[in-house]
Amino acid sequence: MSTEDRPAAPRSLAEALRGRDDVSLGALLRSRPDLITPVPTDLTQLATRAGTRASVVRALERLDRFTLQTAEALAVAADPATYDELLGLMAGDDADPAVAQALPHALGVLREQALVWGGDDRLRLVRTARELLAPSPQHPSPTGLGPTVQEATAGMSPGRIQEIVTAAGLPSTHDSVSAVTSLTELFTDRRRMAALLAEAPTDSLDVLERLVWGPPYGQVTADPAPRLRWLLDRGLLLPTAPGTVVLPREVALHLRRGLAHRTPEPVPPAVEAAAVHRPQVVDSTAAGQAYTALATVEELLKDWDEGGPAVLRAGGLSVRDLKRTAVALDVPEPVAAFWVELAYAAGLIAPDGEADERYAATPAYDEWLELPAAERWSGLVTAWLPVTRTPGLVGGRDAKDRTLSALGPGLDRSAAPEVRHRVLALLAGLPEGAAPAAESVLARLRWERPLRGAQREDDLRGRLAEWALSEAEMLGVTGRGALSAHGRALLGAPAAPAKSPEAESSGPGDKLPVHHRPTHVPTLSPAEQAVASAAAARLLTPLLPEPLDHVLLQADLTAVAPGPLRRPLADMLGVLADVESKGGATVYRFTPGSVRRALDAGQSASDLHAFLAAHSRTPVPQPLTYLIDDVARRHGHLRVGAASAYVRCDDDAVLNEILADKRAAGLGLRRLAPTVLAAQSDPAGLLEGLRAMGFAPAAESAEGDVLITRAHAHRTPPRTAPEPVPDGPPVPDDTLLAAALRAIRAGDLASTTPRKPGTAPEVNGELPRTGSAETLATVQAAVLTGEALWIGYVNAEGAASQRVIAPIRVEGGFVTAYDHTADEVRTYPLHRITGVAELADDAG
User: Fold this and answer.
1) Where is the composition biased (Low complexity) (predicted)?
2) Which of 185, 391, 780, 827 has a Cα at 20 to 30 A from 446?
């Protein structure tokens, strides 16, 4: 291609974007969705927005370590720089082949994200990115490099500069600019620089070694030691402030053999397997954890069935209520916080909205209970994957030093879903049964998103990754640390590789470096996630134990459930007996209180005998039969009603016994009749007091009938699960992206189409202004000639825009024209056209 045929190099980022096709622009808008919120009017505005500080910071934070290192190298290179100069800074004099292989991709990412523009002969880092990454005394560069010779000598006297030039063995010059240029050329010439350093004293070289990898600043006294004086005289150290010296960038690069970074990292650290288990063992272990997860959530909701803890004024659970819930679930408090938050994320619990607001189960909980076990599990895990609420933060402090509580505000972390998906994707990239070392997962994540500035002190992504690993294990997505088959299906991941892709060679023969071969699982759409969840449930179903319809009754007043029980049996047994221990088998214990609870719920002694006989694989022990008959014989013998409260009994000897008991003193009892006692306490308090004394009273109505007390399930009104807090603007879908690209192209066409001299404003972006008569005459002439016009237009909402139209007809105060910017025929009111301008003859 001749020089005349070669396209001109872009002079700005806007011109570089103008030269991109729709595929490339679409990739930019997907990777940086904040650029189309709202949609820019043209490519100039898009370029301006891409260079704003907030947008650039966000883009830099989403780069992997090697791509960020490439940007940092460009920040200390000349502006513009060539590709060879960048390669020298990244690969060094030894030309590391791994760096050379990975650099084109890293540079391509920077170009795609509009952080770098220009050809390989004129690479330019966006000005804002250079300001953020270039070294300065206030913001040291991660490269550890200092200012250039030109920057360090900016305030130095001409005489002092000439002294340095002479001491370095260079001829003196007539001005400071040429002197600094001469000194820079010396420091960047490998051969001459080596000769200069060969003359340096050994202790002077030791000083340079201490500064070479940064920080490049050091302290000196008013009378420097000889080893420092030798360096200062020759400009190898330059003063920046009283008592402070700096190692010039060119000197440091020579000592580093050209490297901008001490350790370039073109290849991500491998995710190492800490242990390898048989896939069947992993799946069965994960299934056991999934069953435990379901049982824990059910137990939590059963505990809150009649109304859970009160909602704090600021929202959330109190510390005391969280402790009580942890005791009820027999788990540590952080684990209890996770289960509470998971039930909330799944829409199973919510505040009830009453004046005395409490947490309670939602109507969705009853529907969830009716689902098969595997589907209940997939519902929980599908709710867990995108949730931004982070239970691991419970008990910590917010920015205002307030304690973060479970179910309270301040727990959302928008990065949580992304980290969770990435951790599971790394597990999916390992062979089946391989459990990763947690530290290698964290190291990989830190490479993919390096920590910058304050992030180093608060490694939130690292903590999110650790929580994701432990939560996946508790939920049964993983077993023994390895991703299960149903967990892999839940992610929509492909089959596990025969060997880990992280362990593959990345030698010169490979076409792509390891980190450019994607092993992650893309985030699924809602429809795709529903299909994946159904597939996971199908894989999990045969691994879960079948519910049993029997228990084993024992002579010590216990019943052993050797597995999960069918719901009606479990519900009834939960009323008739107390849970003594959990695990692979659940042990229930029968006590007078538990039997009385069943009788209070409306069961008779004969009902209880029949129930136990029907569901026991062993004969009903005689002690249990005696216990039920004994409690039933005394149940309801005493009657408690509302007088303030009263006790009546046909056997006055029983009432005498109560009156004689010292424990009854607090009830305020007095005899009204031989068979009736009155009390000062309320009926509920009297019932509890007599039961504490060992009696079995029954409540009665005003008509004298026994009241059967059943647990009242308390439900909230219908509630929706909490929405995740997005991490910035959402990635645009294909429809939105296509519409945005059309609008940007259209606006750019209107703003860049050449106009005839003297007919358009000189300021780019200003709307044309013509009188109404001139506007009408120009439009009518364009109808006859078929020429296109440039117009300014203000719509009914007051939004102004520039458009290129080809008028078709003018009538009734409206112009009908083909709108080149919208690519369709439209009708415009003439009074909303601010003005017209004719296009240049070569505007095609």
Assistant:
1) 493-508
2) 391
